[in-house]
Amino acid sequence: MTNYQSLGVRPVINAYATVTKFGGSLMPPEVLSAMNEAAGSFVDLAQLQRRVGERIAELTRNEAAYVTSGAAAGIVLASAAAVLRKHPEALKRLPDIRAFKAEAIIFRAQRNPYDYAIHQTGLKFDEIAGLPVALRNAITDRSACIFWFPRGNACADEISLAEVIAIGAEYDIPVIVDAAAQLPPVENLWRFTEMGAALALFSGGKDLRGPQPTGLMLGRRDLIDSIRPISNPNHGLGRPLKVGKEELLGLLAAIERYLTLDHAARAQYCEEAVQLFCAALNPLPGLRAERVFPNEAGQPLPWCRVTIDPTALGKSAEDILAAFLAHEPAIAVSPLDETHFHLNPMTLNPGEELIVRDACLRLLRLDRP
Ligand SMILES: *Cc1c(COP(=O)(O)O)cnc(C)c1O
C-alpha cells in the first residue's frame, strides 16, 4: 500500500490553521472526483485553463480568472503582469528587467515572507510608510504596481485599501491584493476586485479546500491575458509554475462547492468547538482559555486562545506544542509565544474537536508527570 503509514509518517489532526506546513486543507469528495475525472483523458491544457478561468470568473463576479500553482505563484505572475503592462518587450526577458527599473510599492507594516515572490520577477521594492502622502510621493514612472497584503485586525493600517486603490487609479498604477488566506468570508472572492483592485490572489489549498498546489488570480482580463504567453504550457517565467488538468478541474469544483457551502453552519461548528475547549480547559489550574474573534488571519471565525502559567504547569508553551505533536494521534496547535497558543477549529473534521479536547485534558493536567 502507498500511504503515510508505510513511510512511517504520522497523520496529524490540524487544530492550527490552513498552513502549508501541515498540508493546507483536506480536499472534499467533490474535488477528488473532479480530479479523478480530469485524470482520465488528455486535453488541450491551454483551452482548459481558459474555460476553467471563464467559469470561475462568472462564479466569482470577476472579469477574468486564472488558476496558478498557489497564491505565492500568483504573486510572481501578477508582478510579471504589472511589468508587461508597461514593458511588453519584457516578455521573453523576465526576470532580467534591470533595464526597465521596474518597482513594486509595498507598505513597510505589511512586509511578510511571501513578498519575496515579487523579487522573483525582477522587481525592486519601494518600501513605504502606510500614509497617503508617502504613497503619492513614492509613485514615479518606475512604479509598476502597488501590493496590498491584508492582515488580521491585530494592528490597524494607517492607510486603507480604498485609499490605496483611489490613489493608484489617479496615477494609473494597478493595485494587487494578496488575499491568500482571506477566505472566509466567501464575498472576498469579489470584494477586493469590486473595490477596484486590479488583481486579487487567493490560495486554492487553504479554506477553498482545492488541491494544495493551486491558487486563484481574479481580476482584470488584460493583466491575466498578458501572462498566458509565458505560462504553462508556453515557455517563459511562468513555465515552472505549472498546474495540471487535475488541479484545474479540482480547483473549479472546490470553488463551486465553496459558493454553496453553508457558511453559517460552519461558523456555528467553530463556535461550539471553542465553547467545548473553554469549558474543558478553564477548570484546570495554571491556564485560562478564551474565545477570540476574529482569528489571526482576520477570518470571521472564532478560535480558542489558551494562556498558560509556565511556572505553575512546569512546562512552556513550546513543550506543550511538542507534546501535542508527540501525542497519539498527533495534533498540531497554533503557536503564539511563550505563554500562549491557540486551538483553531477551522481545519478540524467534525468529531476531531473531542479528540483535541481529550488530548488537552491529558496533556495539561497538573497531576500528569
Ligand atoms: C498562504 C499565504 C501565501 C501563499 O499561498 P500558497 O497558496 O501556499 O502559495 C501568500 N500570502 C499570504 C498572506 C498567505 O497567507
Please explain how this structure is put together:
The protein is 38% helix and 17% strand. The chain has 369 residues and is an alpha/beta fold. It has 13 helices and 12 strands. The model has no long low-confidence stretch (mean pLDDT 96). The chain folds into 2 domains: 27-258, Type I PLP-dependent aspartate aminotransferase-like (Major domain) (Aspartate Aminotransferase, domain 2); 262-364, Aspartate Aminotransferase, domain 1. The strands form 2 sheets. It has a 7-stranded mixed β-sheet with strand order 2-8-7-6-5-3-4, sandwiched between helices. The relative contact order is 0.16. The two termini are 38 Å apart. The chain has helices at residues 29-38, 45-59, 71-86, 116-119, 132-138, 161-171, 188-195, 221-227, 245-260, 263-281, 310-313, 317-326, 352-364; strands at 12-15, 64-68, 103-107, 124-128, 143-148, 175-178, 199-203, 215-219, 287-292, 303-308, 330-337, 340-343. Helix 2 (45-59) runs parallel beside helix 9, helix 3 (71-86) crosses helix 8 and helix 10 runs parallel beside helix 13. Pyridoxal-5'-phosphate is lined by residues 20, 70-72, 112, 114, 149, 178, 180-181, 203, 205, 215.
What ligands can be seen in this structure?
pyridoxal-5'-phosphate
Radius of gyration over C-alpha positions, nearest whole angstrom: 22 Å
Derived structural class: alpha/beta
Query: In the CATH scheme, what's the topology name of the largest domain?
Result: Aspartate Aminotransferase, domain 2
CATH superfamily of the largest domain: Type I PLP-dependent aspartate aminotransferase-like (Major domain)
Q: What is the number of independent domains?
A: 2
Number of helices: 13
Residue runs with pLDDT of under 50 for 5 or more positions: none
Please state the second-level CATH architecture of the largest domain: 3-Layer(aba) Sandwich
- Work out the strand percent: 15-25%
Query: Helical residue percent?
Result: 25-40%
Q: Could you give the distance between the termini?
A: 38 Å
> What is the CATH C-level name of the largest domain?
Alpha Beta
